[in-house]
Design a protein that fits this description.
The chain contains 16 helices and six strands. The two termini are 36 Å apart. The strands form three sheets. A two-stranded antiparallel sheet has the order 1-2.
Length: 503
Amino acid sequence: MDVVSLSRWQFGITTVYHFFMVPLTIGLGLTVAYFQTRWYRSGDEAYLRLTKFFGKLFLINFAMGVVTGIVQEFQFGMNWANYSRFVGDAFGAPLAMEALVAFFLESTFLGLWIFGWGRLSPKLHLATIWAAAIGATLSAYFIVAANSWMQHPVGAIYNAETGRAEMVDVWAVLTNSTTLAAYPHVIAGALLTAAVFVGGISAWLLMRDKPMPKADSVALHKAVRTSIYLTFAMGIAVAVSGDYQAKLMFQQQPMKMAAAEALCDTEQPAGLSVFAVGDVSAECDVRTIVIPDLLSFMATGSFDGRVEGVKDINAAYQEKFGPGDYRPNLVITYWSFRAMIGFGAIASFGAVVAWWKTRKGKELPTDKKWLRVGSIAVIATPFLANAFGWIFTEMGRQPWVVAPNPDGIPELRLMTANAASPAVSSAMVWTTVIGFTLLYGALMVVELFLLQRYVKAGPEAVMPHSPPPGPEPDDDGPRGADDADDGQTPARDEEADVLAFAY
């Protein structure tokens, strides 16, 4: 394999692996902050148990996300030196903001939250987890802004002397229309991931053939109900934001829209391909189970809209940019788009099942093995939906690494084949591909072991018994459980161990 293909494989493997951690970190941070807020305002110990329990799982995932994310930035300067040279001025700005502002905010206040139990006032301690959660969401914004510049370059000019893109308007980069469309979709997907994660684990613990303290049962039932409503809300948010993204994609990257539907020839109106039976080849000759006119509505907002096909767009690109094949891999683009939607729908269906089983105050049955297995299996679906969505976004842009802006400067574009480093050999990339794959495999074993250990232990492991009652709530909120050391020290020490693992 050539250097470009190997470099793409390495970046794809490490990015998708890292992106498994990102949505859960963002969504679970906000969810834990919500649980602690409920405890602070009501004094209900159930929410304190949920804060402690899911806070531990949040820390494990955060640690793994930090470890796997470090590799990403090094690849830009090593395997993709030509890319970094071309886009560094514009692409580097949001990445620098992510590291200097968002990540420092997140990691600093997360440390204060971990070590602040019993040391900070309840109000200040609550502020630290919200600061960490906000830092995670800000981090996502800057990363999405950087990626959106690759999808739709704005706020920059092309310097013919240096052959580089030079940023002239950072505000335009940060308020890119692609960013404003993609960011709500990413956050909604992250909260959906956290909701299914919290609900699946809570349901599994409740359905185990193992007795648990009444306090844990009450807390986990609250977690299940919270996850059901959050899943419903975020499912709607994902669908609405995804529809808006599709319409914007039709304007900015018509080839990606056509490839997602394997639409070979221009149609007016165009039908939506639900499923393909057979081979979705480069000639896109298999489009079965089509819903008439729906693609036109998704792309243009009109059931009679005109949607250009792959062949026509490719011909237009050849005339504009010179000879070449400007079509992405149709098989990957077509099926990753459907996998994204399909796994997201399964996650929402799991919430429907949970709602039905717990309606009117019912308790989850303990004699249904399929339900126990399903509560764990459904946790994987939003992770897969997010991963396939990311694959679709990146693969649908090919063969461009910086896609041309239809309304922008024509020179602000770069093909993937021209982005790799000329100083890196295939043997070098093979070495790192194999090394990172083995390393990431080992890290996955570590994370799954830690998650399994603490999930099986349940909330009782972080709060072995109820803390003694404290004084009446004052202006700073309920203090008894927060200020008491009895029953809190073991949990605080274990959280310190998890943070040490991250460093």
